[in-house]
Amino acid sequence: QDPKLYPPGDIVFLDRGEGTTALIHLHGATIISWKCNGVENLYLSQSSVFDNKKAIRGGVPVVFPNFGPWPLGPQHGFARIKRWSIAVPPRKDHNGDVIVLFTLDADDETLAMWNYKFKLVYTIVLTPTTLMSTLVVHNKDTKSLGFTCLLHTYFRVANIETTAIEGLQGLIFSDKLKDGKEVKETRKQITVDKNYDRVYKDAPKTLFISSGPDPARNIELVTFNFPDIVVWNPWEQKAKEMSDFDDDGYKEMICVEPGKVIVPITLEAGQQYECKQTLICKL
Ligand code: BG6
Question: What pTM does this model have?
Answer without folding.
Answer: 0.98
